[in-house]
Each structure stands twice: as structure tokens, then as C-alpha cells.
Design brief:
Alkaline Phosphatase, subunit A, 21 helices, globular, eight-stranded mixed beta sheet
Length: 606
């Protein structure tokens, strides 16, 4: 009998193993389908014609993952079920992200699975509850299977433990994919052509698994040539002297309140060819922006998302374009490891400012609570602690009008000058069912696709913004307001995006307003990491060496990201800088590297 049972268990073991191989092969093909817009032709050519070696390497990685789950569950059936459902959800999420943001899923995105509030708002209650039921059912099944597996025979337990240890070791090794001597990376390098400047193409050319591995943990920046303590000190001495000179010549007026307003998905839909709408949803905004000292378009790193990255740039003065492409989200990948990090917050706090962040949503999103502590904010007001919490619709978020009132309540307090950083939520997707009626009508094929409700959203924002600016004029202390949209909403059809230049989908609106400055408005294109330098020019605020360096780079290169440079009044794939300009740009690059991945010699530079 024991012999027969042994034969049966061996038979079941081999059947389970063969089933795992088949499932892994099919699941890798499925992930490739999600990467290729569900095109059977493209996915088949990738797997069996164009990139077969990379496809098989991806199958190996997925097999390790599958066998690890199987060994934890102690059951091929339960382990494979858990694996398959997880892969299905991953493929759907990848397809949706590509559709809305033209970006694939990154390893850091998996942390979003615990952001229940955001998932509920995006999916809606029905799909969200279904998702929760599936997740808890799988976890419960896995726990039950593990408990039941403790009764397996000693022989199967030995096989299971060996499999668990080996697969765990392999997963740890695979997680170091970006180490130069990693054997899996070397195997991929035989045929892979990595495209770091375009993650969408990177995944397309190396497969979902290859692209995913490429974005695992990595240093924030590559070490630039010429980096040393002496080089950093030389740069600091040069620009600190310029800052001292500017501060001596600057008017010593009253310190103004400074307000950052990063408006969710705020942009001008009428700038896109193929979008025909009446009336103009930004009528009020245009009137407000015309009162500013600067206005124009801001270059956003992403289309349809990437809020935290734009926020990172605007607060730190550092460019995402100089970071390693795998550093997809500094807020979650880099800043939580830092006890402190220089920013406009720390610069103003050295000048007796009080700094408050406001976000009408939860504190865990993008680890903002931790990140804001790293930046040195004195307080963080969220959706639960806001005094004003009105919404414009039952399906919407806290309104911008409420958020602006929250800002004004801080500015009206008679105390130290304030730096208030507001990240709004009213205009966040989804738009389709947000309002029963929109005052803005579309014509053509794009009608009724959520764009009309989006137009209503930004019109409400414009109206509230106009009222907010009027209120700041009545304050005793002067006010500087920097307002910008973080990115376009991911709601435009592919044919509309195809009819426009690529950079158009990355240009949002911005303006800088100073209640004391009545000089003519300057029309400019800008990157958000220059905002601190614009604030540093204000009367009553002392500039720093770093802000002066930023200002010099801004003078010849007012906007840039990877593969997008606004140089010599035109958009270029590469900027042909002069020798003098190149030297200044390298100084900026060295300072950023020093703080991101270097020895932080320049800590006192900010």
C-alpha cells in the first residue's frame, strides 16, 4: 500500500509540475497580450519569432514565482489558482495603465494594491467590492491550504521545503536584476535593447517581464564624470557668492506668504487638435493668469498621471529627467529612506516661514505623510482634518473651492509668513459619471467620452481660483501664488493624440502671481523644477546658491525632460548647448547627483 501511495503521489507531483509549466507559458503570453493592446499577432510574433529568447527567460522568472507560491500553499491546485488570478489582475491593470497613462505597470505600482480608497474611487463600489472579495477569498484559501499541507507526507514535505528555499533564493537573486554581474541580466543583455528613455517601448521590446525587472531597485542617478568633494565645493563657492550679491541688491520688503497650488489634471483641452468645445471652460482662468508675472505652459513628465513626480520636481528643484529611468517614483522609492531632504520647504523655513501641506485625500497615497516629514513640513492637513470638506457631486472629491478656503484660513492667521503647498483632488478621474449635466458641449466623435464633464471640472476650478486670488489681494501680508496643472487627464482618444505633437500631451497650464508686482506678464514655457527659483526672486525672500544655479540653467534651457528639450525657442530631441551652457548644466547635474546618490557635500547649499 505504501508503495502504491508513493507512486500516486509521484504521479500527482509530475502532473502538477507539468501544469505549472503550461500555466507559466500561457501567463507570460497573456502578459505580452496586455502589453500589445491584446493583439494576438503581435504577442505571437514576440514569443515565437522576434524575441523568443527573452520570452523564455520571462517564463523562467514566472516559473520561479509560481513554484514559490505552490510551495507556500503546499498544493499545486491552490498555488496555481493564486498565481493565475494574480497574473490576470496584473494584465488588466497593465492594459488600463497603458490606456490612461501610456505607461506600463512598474514594480512600485504594486504597492497601490493597499490604497483601498483610491481603488474604490477609480473602480466604483461594485468592482471594488468584487475585487476585495476575490483578494480575501484567495488569501483565505491560501491560509487554509497551508494549514492543511502540514499533514503532507515527510517525503513531500522535504520536496516542498527544498522548493521553497531554492525559489526564495532565486527570487532574491532576481530582485537584484540591475546589478552588473547578475546572470539573468547578462542573459537578457545577449539580445535585449533597453530603451530607458521610453518605458513603454522598453517593455514592448524586452517583454513585460524584462521591462518589469529592468525597473527593480536601482540607484537614483548614475555618477557623473568629475564628481568629487572639491568639485561640489567649487560650485557652492561660485553660486553662494552670486546669491550674496543678489541679496544685497534686492529690495528688503516684507516677507510674502508663498502658496503652491498643484491642480490635479488641470490643462487646456482646446489646445489639442480635434477637441472642439463651446464655451471656453478656462475663461476665468485666463483672466486670472493674465494678472500674473509669469504664465504659459508647463512641461509635465507624464501623460495621464505621475502627480507625485511633478510634485517632487516642484518642491526640490531637481529634474526627473536626470534620474535613472528605473527611479520611477522618488516619493516611494527614494525619499522614505532619507531623514531630511532639501527643498523649497527647508529653504523658506530657514527664513522663519511656517510650512503646511494640504491634500484633500488620504495621507498614505505616495507615502506623502512620510515624505512631507522628510521635507520638513510643520503640518499636513488631509481630507479628515480639513475644516472645509464640501464636494460638488456625490461621485466627486473635496472641491477646489473648499481647498482654497482651507489655504486662506491659514494665510489670515496673524503669525509668521506662510508657505502652503496644496495638492488638489476635485479634478481627479473618473469623469464620466461625476456630473449629471455639463455646461460645455463637444462636437465630433469625442463627444460623450467624459471630456465634457472634465471641462466642467476645470471650469469650476477656474471660477474658484479667481475668487481665491481676489481674496489674497485683501490680505495684510503680500502673497506669491504658483499655480500649475500636474498632467493632462488620460481621457483623450488615440486618434486625437496621434493628430497632435507628442509634447502637446505633456503641456499643462501654469502662472505665478505676486500681489505686489504689477509688471507685464511674461509668457514662458517652463519645467516645474524651476518654480523654487522663481519664488527666490520675490521681494522679501532671500535667494540661495542653489536657486541662483537653477536660475542660470533656466535662462538657456527653460524646460526639459528625457528626449524633450525647449531650447532656442523650439522643441528639440537633443539640445545643442554651447560650451558655457554645457558647463552650467553639468554643475546642476553634479549638485543633483550629490544629494540624490552622492555624499551630500552640498547639504548647506540650499
Amino acid at each position: 500500500m505504501k508503495f502504491i501511495k508513493k507512486i500516486k503521489s509521484s504521479h500527482s507531483l509530475w502532473i502538477g509540475l507539468v501544469a505549472s509549466f503550461i500555466l507559466v507559458f500561457l501567463s507570460n503570453y497573456y502578459l505580452q497580450l496586455s502589453e500589445n493592446s491584446w493583439s494576438l499577432e503581435l504577442a505571437t510574433k514576440f514569443a515565437f519569432s522576434w524575441h523568443t529568447e527573452k520570452f523564455l527567460l520571462g517564463c523562467f522568472v514566472l516559473l520561479v514565482l509560481d513554484l514559490f507560491i505552490v510551495s507556500v500553499a503546499g498544493s499545486f491546485f491552490v498555488g496555481n489558482l493564486f498565481y493565475v488570478v494574480g497574473i490576470i489582475l496584473l494584465g488588466i491593470a497593465n492594459s488600463l495603465k497603458l490606456s490612461y497613462r501610456m505607461e506600463p505597470i512598474y514594480p512600485e505600482d504594486l504597492k497601490m494594491i493597499v490604497e483601498w480608497g483610491m481603488l474604490r474611487d477609480i473602480l466604483g463600489w461594485v468592482l471594488f467590492l468584487l475585487f476585495i472579495c476575490v483578494v480575501f477569498a484567495l488569501i483565505g484559501t491560501l491560509i487554509y491550504s497551508f494549514y492543511h499541507s502540514l499533514k503532507l507526507s515527510p517525503r513531500l514535505q522535504r520536496i516542498r521545503i527544498v522548493t521553497l528555499v531554492v525559489t526564495l533564493f532565486l527570487m532574491v537573486y532576481i530582485s537584484h536584476f540591475n546589478d552588473p554581474n547578475n546572470l539573468l541580466r547578462k542573459a537578457y543583455n545577449r539580445t535585449a535593447k533597453w530603451i530607458p528613455y521610453s518605458q513603454k517601448m522598453n517593455y514592448y521590446n524586452t517583454g513585460f517581464v524584462g521591462g518589469f525587472l529592468f525597473n527593480l531597485q536601482v540607484e537614483g542617478m548614475e555618477k557623473p564624470e568629475g564628481y568629487s568633494k572639491e568639485a561640489i565645493q567649487s560650485i557652492m563657492t561660485k553660486y553662494d557668492a552670486k546669491a550674496d550679491k543678489v541679496n544685497k541688491e534686492k529690495k528688503t520688503g516684507e516677507q510674502p506668504n508663498v502658496v503652491y497650488i498643484m491642480s490635479e489634471s488641470f490643462s487646456d483641452p482646446l489646445k489639442l487638435k480635434g477637441i472642439n468645445m463651446t464655451p471656453d471652460p478656462l475663461k476665468d482662468y485666463r483672466e486670472v493668469a493674465s494678472e500674473g508675472i509669469y504664465q504659459g505652459q508647463m512641461l509635465s513628465q507624464n501623460y495621464g498621471g505621475g502627480t507625485a513626480n511633478i510634485e517632487f520636481e516642484a518642491l526640490t528643484g531637481f529634474s526627473m529627467g536626470l534620474l535613472n529611468p528605473q527611479m520611477t517614483t522618488p516619493y516611494t522609492m527614494m525619499l522614505p529612506k532619507e531623514k531630511e531632504f532639501p527643498s523649497i520647504v527647508s529653504t523658506l523655513k530657514q527664513q522663519n516661514y511656517e510650512a503646511t501641506a494640504i491634500h484633500p485625500y488620504n495621507t498614505s497615497m505616495y507615502k506623502r505623510k512620510d515624505v512631507y516629514q522628510t521635507f520638513g513640513f510643520d503640518g499636513f492637513i488631509d481630507e479628515k482634518t480639513m475644516t472645509y470638506q464640501d464636494k460638488l457631486s456625490t461621485a466627486g472629491y473635496i472641491s477646489d473651492e473648499s481647498a482654497f478656503k482651507e489655504v486662506l484660513s491659514l494665510l489670515k492667521e496673524d503669525k509668521n509668513p506662510q508657505f502652503v503647498h496644496l495638492v488638489t483632488m476635485q479634478t481627479h478621474m473618473p469623469y464620466t459619471n461625476k456630473y449629471e449635466h455639463s455646461d460645455y458641449q463637444m462636437s465630433g466623435e469625442t463627444k460623450g467620452k467624459g471630456i465634457e464633464n472634465y471641462a466642467q471640472d476645470i471650469a469650476y476650478t477656474s471660477e474658484a481660483l479667481e475668487a481665491f486670488i481676489k481674496e489674497t489681494k485683501q490680505l495684510d501680508r503680500p502673497t506669491v501664488v504658483v499655480f500649475w496643472g500636474d498632467h493632462l487627464p488620460g481621457i483623450y482618444p488615440d486618434d486625437v493624440l496621434a493628430d497632435n505633437e507628442e509634447v502637446t500631451a505633456h503641456l499643462t497650464e501654469y502662472f505665478v502671481y505676486d500681489s505686489r508686482d504689477n509688471s507685464p506678464t511674461k509668457e514662458t514655457v517652463i519645467s516645474p523644477f524651476y518654480f523654487p527659483s522663481l519664488v527666490g526672486q520675490s521681494e522679501g525672500i532671500k535667494t540661495t546658491g542653489f536657486l541662483e544655479l537653477l536660475q542660470e540653467v533656466h535662462a538657456f534651457l527653460p524646460a526639459f525632460e528625457k528626449d524633450q528639450y525647449f531650447y532656442d525657442n523650439s522643441w528639440q530631441k537633443e539640445a545643442s548647448l554651447s560650451k558655457e551652457e554645457e558647463a552650467i548644466f553639468r554643475e546642476y547635474e553634479l549638485i543633483q547627483y550629490d544629494m540624490v546618490s552622492g555624499e551630500k557635500y552640498s547639504k548647506a547649499f540650499f
